[in-house]
Input
Amino acid sequence: MSKQPSKLSLRGAGRRAMHHRYEVAAEAGDGGAMLFLATKLAPDDPEGSRAWFRRAAEAGNVPAMYIVGLFIEPHDPDDSRMWLERAAKGGHNDARIKLGVQAQEAGDPTQARQLYEQAAQDGSTIAMFNLGLLHEGSDPTVARGWYEKAAEKGDADAMFNLGRMLEADEPNAARALWERAAAAGQPEAQERL
Output
């Protein structure tokens, strides 16, 4: 009588077969498979993981472009910027926001605004919040509008800043916003209450 394989050994065999299929697809140029392998290898083989992320980015995988841009930023800011720009052009909102922050820090609020607006149009509350911050000193009405949009989508930091803007003229509205922000864990709102 032959011994039946255990469920555990079958699961392991299934994982190995799946991994092999991803390797074959990655070697054939599938950027999604490359991204999967890069993610899978990250805990145990960081160098192998980085190599697959780069290959995926070079194959046109937009999330991999963003990740490569972040990886290499400390030691190669120019190449990092190139990857982030490619990811942003591919529609990656986190890349747009990262480039927007860099533009803002470099003293280019026009470029920052354009990048944040692109991400905000795609629904990024982080971009909406950043637009609020960007406009707060120069155009409080525009800043308020961006904070309102982000707050409507549940951004607790936007709720806090909007409450701060409303505090003098609309204290009840400000308090209601801070209560919502505090309930969402926003520390400054929790201190205000």
Q: What stands out?
A: The CA atoms of residues 57 and 64 lie 5 Å apart. The radius of gyration is 23 Å. Residues 7-27 form the longest helix (21 residues).
